[in-house]
Give the backbone structure.
Amino acid sequence: MSILAEREDQAVEENLQNDDDYEESFFQDIDSLQNHGINVADIKKLKSSGICTIRGVQMTTRKKLCNIKGISEAKVDKIKEAVAKISSDGFLTGLQVSEKRKQVFKISTGSTEFDNLLAGGIESMAITEVFGEFRTGKTQLSHTLCVTTQMPGNRGYCGGKVIFIDTENTFRPDRLRDIASRYNLDHDAMLDNVLYARAYTSEHQFELMDYVAAKFHEEPGVFKLLIIDSVMALFRVDFCGRGELAERQQKLAQMLSRLQKISEEYNVAVFITNQMTADPGATMRRVVVLHASYTISVLLQVFK
């Protein structure tokens, strides 16, 4: 095995060994609610809906909590009250925020020039969107990131695993093998660190977010990047014409909000692709994406 491959395996092993320390320092497990009168059955119901941390409860509205089967309004009030007792979140000084931001890491794109444009690479606790016309390299960049995420980088970044959600059946393991060869990485070890899911409808895409959150909670600090290629494709299919435009934009906004919360809750980077079209809702789509909590948008364009 090559030196780089050994470094990559060692980085993942270090992540696994430090899971407990990471969990304790970055987020509070929802199981701690048991100490404040919340029964195990209700906690399991929250986890089944992708709410696995105290911050996750804070990020969920009372209305959505009430929509969880078996969780009544009275239980929601009790849960929210318990979370308020546990959580120390509130107003922070600028210095405290600065210290917290030191946990942010950046993943290399594989291109020094591109990394410079992004001020170091794909940033955690944020959504990075690349958009452009057909065949401008969006999916290729997604595949490259599956590999570079696993490699140690600058500022103490030690590498980690990737979740890839495919909405257009564009994921190709053979392309990952070719990219891994460039960095002299072990192909099988690299592929084993990429968790893949195929989304078939916009609803299915949203449901997968619960699984993603559960996986990030199950292996804290191990996963570093979530990729969705592409974020908009299924919404264009499921919502047609101007008559369904408002509903489509609302659902898309909810998806982006969920992604942003996941990135902040588990300190992971979120990378999404988007194809530019002449769709009547294309302009509105850009407005919604650009107004997500913190989104870095990059236009990919081929010049002839």
Summary: Residues 245-266 form the longest helix (22 residues). Residues 16-24, 282-287 have pLDDT under 50 and may be disordered.
